[in-house]
């Protein structure tokens, strides 16, 4: 058996248990219908975040912004929602590699609060704070189709883990492209900071997921 990965992001032991608490806290109720998005009709997948706690309260962005900032938030919110839906599906399964489960919990723990953050920006900018379709799927973005989501839901064991990892790698690459466009064209300091963080964090997760695929 090959040695297990010890990535910069610790996915083992007590941290996985602790992360599970994050997963639980992020599964709340949403008043917004996201059923039109692929993967948004799988259990709690359509309810990735809650604004009930102070840390999750929507806060408008400070400072100037432009159309690129609005487009970034409108596209990234549904994109993040699908990543949360994918994570929900894999975490709910039995027989999945612990490192894959830990990574899924980590992804949801990061992207759930980012959804709330971006929703706050949009509300402050006078835009819909919960866009259900903020991106042109013909242009890519790494989004999973409904067929892809159904396959992930139905798969088991290592097959499910592989589908999750390969799908999420493509998904992350799409997010990185979107974030790079924001970095090049955006104006909001907060949106630019988040875009830079997405590039850094999701590239690191792609490295981890690529390594995990070699062990399944």
UniProtKB/TrEMBL annotation:
Pfam families per record: DUF305
Key word Transferase present: no
UniProt KW Signal keyword: yes
UniProt keywords, alphabetically: Signal
Residue ranges, compositional bias (Polar residues): 46-56
The region called Disordered is annotated at 34-64
Q: Which InterPro entries match?
A: DUF305_CopM-like (IPR005183), Ferritin-like (IPR012347)
Endpoints of the signal sequence = 1-31
Q: DUF305 domain spans which residues?
A: 69-213
Going by the entry's taxonomy, the superkingdom of the source organism is recorded as Bacteria
What's the protein here called? DUF305 domain-containing protein
Q: Which organism is it from?
A: Microlunatus aurantiacus
């Amino acid at each position: 058996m090959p040695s297990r990965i010890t990535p910069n992001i610790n996915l083992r032991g007590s941290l996985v248990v602790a992360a599970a608490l994050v997963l639980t806290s992020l599964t709340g109720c949403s008043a917004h219908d996201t059923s039109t998005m692929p993967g948004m009709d799988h259990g709690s997948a359509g309810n990735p975040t809650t604004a009930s706690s102070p840390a999750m309260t929507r806060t408008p962005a400070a400072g100037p912004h432009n159309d690129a900032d609005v487009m970034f938030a409108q596209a990234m919110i549904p994109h993040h929602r699908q990543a949360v839906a994918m994570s929900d599906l894999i975490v709910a399964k039995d027989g999945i590699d612990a490192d894959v489960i830990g990574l899924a919990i980590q992804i949801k723990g990061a992207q759930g609060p980012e959804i709330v953050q971006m929703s706050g920006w949009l509300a402050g900018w006078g835009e819909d704070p919960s866009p259900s379709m903020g991106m042109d799927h013909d242009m890519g973005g790494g989004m999973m189709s409904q067929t892809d989501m159904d396959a992930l839901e139905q798969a088991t064991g290592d097959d499910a883990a592989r589908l999750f990892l390969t799908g999420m790698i493509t998904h992350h690459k799409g997010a990185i492209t979107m974030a790079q466009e924001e970095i090049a064209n955006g104006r909001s300091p907060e949106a630019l900071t988040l875009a830079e963080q997405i590039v850094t964090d999701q590239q690191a997760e792609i490295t981890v997921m690529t390594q995990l695929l070699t062990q399944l």
